[in-house]
Structure formats: C-alpha cells, structure tokens
Amino acid sequence: MAGSDTIDSLDRKLLHALQTDGRARFSRIAAVLGVSDQTVARRYASLRAHHGVRVLGQVDETRVGRTRWILRLSCTPDAAAGFATALARRADTRYVGLTSGGTEVLCVMAARTPAARDTLLLDKLQHTPRVTAVDAHCVLHTFYGGPSGWFSKSAALTPEQVDALAPPPLHPPDDPVSLDDVDERLIDLLGRDGRAPVSALAVAAEQSESSVRRRLDRLRRTGAAYYDLDVGTELTGQYLRVGLWLAVAPGDLAAVGAALAGHKEIVFAAATTGAPNLVAVALCRDAAHLYRYLTATLGPLPVRAVETAPILREVKHLATRR
C-alpha cells in the first residue's frame, strides 16, 4: 500500500474512479479495478487521512437558474490574505485564491439571489477600504470544469473502465430546476461529505431514506447537483496552478474554448463577459512546462492576447480545507 507521502497506480485509478462517479459503491469500483472491496475502502481512507482527498457534492448554478461570477480583486499588500480568508468563509463563494504577488484575490462566487449578488458586488466590496479595484466577469458558458476534473484526463483508467463506472446520462429539463429547502439542505450536507450514507443524510435532513434517495436521483439526473473530487496539487504532480485571461474574437470563442477543454493542463475554462472574455486555469509541473504549454499548445490558437497569473495560494477550493 502506498505510504503517506506517495501514491501508486492503484491510488490513481481510485481517484479517477471517484472523479467519474463520486458516489459509486466501493464494491462497484472494486469490481472494475479487479481488487477487493476492503482494499478500495482502505485506500480511500488513507487518501483522506494523508492527503485530504474528499468527494464533495456541488450545485450546478446554470441548472438552477443562478449566475456564477469570477472576481479579480486588487488589495493593498497587507490586506489580501486576510480578505481572502474572509471571502472563503462566505457560503456564496466557490473558490478563493491569491495571485499576482499576493496583492490580487481571485474569487468565484454564485449568490442564490440577484439581491445577494448585488449586496456583495455593489455594496460590500465597493466599501471595503483596502480593496482598491473590483473587476467582475459573469460566466456565460463553461467549456470544462464542474464534474470534469484533472483526474478525468489522467488516463489512469481505460475507456472501458470509465464507461463501466459512469453514472446514468443527464436529462436536464428546459427550464431551471427548482430547489426547495430540503434540496438545499441535502446539497449543503453533500458539500461536506459527498459520500455520506443515505441513512445519515436522512437523519440530518429529517426525511425518510426513500425520500432522500428520490431527491438525490432527481438532483443528479437533472444535473442540478454533481460530485467533484477535492484533491491537492501534490497528488496530480502538477505544482504550478495558473490563471489564464484570454482575449478572443467572438467568432473564435466557441472553438478556442472547446480546444482548451481538450488540453490535459486545463482544469477549468469558461467564456465570460468583459475583456478578456475567456478565463481558464491550467495545471503545470513547473515553469518550463507552462512555457511549453503557452508557446506550443496555446500559441497556435486564434488568441489575441493572454495574461498569465500564477495562483500562489488556494484559500478555498470547493470547500475550505480543514
């Protein structure tokens, strides 16, 4: 079994399996990987204990009629870290990181209501003394991200193994999915532990187990909720995380976004309002790898301009690490 500082090929296969279906039973994963249930359970427990790996339930804002915003917040040098920590505590922030020498905060937020969004963007941020500039980009379309994380591109599993583990296809309705208080409560619980047993979810949500199963099935089937894998960069072997801000002609936006989605380095890519109008996050082994990616892979695409912003520290990723 892999030690606390390293992982082996079986660990990587397990991570790829959990990225494919975060709530797949260990017995199902074990059958696909050709090992015992106990081995899978033991490996997952070790990855959690030594590397903080967690499966977390997330809401897909586009499926429930909410809008996601990407914020670039310039701060005075003495305030950025503390401000980032404060943002990370908010329930409406999905990601918070420090870039540009530690004076810029990168934040992804998705308020439940327009009023809550306006309170943050137009009131609180504008009246925070040590925030010197606010640049807000509304996410228009996501090319890569959500349930598709880095391990989906790791090739640890064969295509046949991925197909055997993949959850049923989505059947999203034309209209936004309506979430009631119980749905919100379940998503909040899954945001702490996406593999929580139905029995535990039922007790916490004060619902019957059959009701919880029906709700979880509906949330997943409609795409309103999905399961993501919270993994530190040490397990990917890609230690340099970089924000990419690209300016692309409107006619090339779809093609460039689709191309980025296919790049192994890209863990997130979305079209946004503003200039730049395409935002991405790349994972690279080191500066030399980033240079090769920018010049040989990204360079040939019809991109007018690109700004790179290394992410020095992740303060919040899916959920604040404990």
Structure description:
The chain has 322 residues and is α+β, with helices and mostly antiparallel strands. Helices cover 37% and strands 25% of the residues. The chain is built from 12 helices and 10 strands. The chain has helices spanning 9-20, 26-33, 37-51, 80-88, 114-124, 159-165, 181-190, 198-205, 209-221, 233-236, 253-262, 287-298, and strands at residues 54-59, 69-75, 93-99, 104-109, 131-144, 225-230, 240-247, 266-272, 278-284, 305-317. A hairpin with a 5-residue loop joins strand 8 and strand 9 (278-284). The longest helix is centred in the first third of the chain and has 15 residues, at 37-51. It is globular. The chain starts with 8 loop residues before the first helix and ends in a 5-residue tail after the last strand. Keywords: DNA-binding, Transcription, Transcription regulation. This is AsnC family transcriptional regulator. It comes from Actinocatenispora rupis.
List keywords for this structure.
two-stranded antiparallel ribbon, alpha+beta, single chain, Alpha-Beta Plaits, 25% strand, 37% helix, transcription, DNA-binding, 10 strands, Arc Repressor Mutant, subunit A, 12 helices, AsnC family transcriptional regulator, Tscrpt_reg_AsnC-like, WH-like_DNA-bd_sf
Quick overview of this protein structure:
37% of the residues lie in helices and 25% in strands.
State the CATH topology of the largest domain: Arc Repressor Mutant, subunit A
Number of strands: 10
Most strands sheet: 8 strands, antiparallel, barrel
Summed over residues and divided by their number, the pLDDT gives a mean of 92
Strand content: 25-35%
How do the SSEs run, as a string of H and E? HHHEEHEEHEHHHHEHEHEEHE
Low-pLDDT segments, ≥5 res: none
Shape: globular
Q: Radius of gyration from the CA trace?
A: 20 Å
Percentage of residues assigned to helices: 25-40%
**What is the C-level CATH assignment of the largest domain?**
Mainly Alpha
Q: How many distinct helices?
A: 12
Number of domains: 3
What is the terminal separation in angstroms? 25 Å
Task: Using the 3D structure, state the CATH architecture of the largest domain.
Answer: Orthogonal Bundle
Strand order of the largest sheet: 2-4-3-10-7-9-8-5
* Helix vs. strand class: alpha+beta
Domain HTH asnC-type: 7-67
Protein name: AsnC family transcriptional regulator
GO molecular function, one term: sequence-specific DNA binding
InterPro entries: AsnC-type_HTH_dom, Dimeric_a/b-barrel, Tscrpt_reg_AsnC-like, Tscrpt_reg_AsnC/Lrp_C, WH-like_DNA-bd_sf, WH_DNA-bd_sf
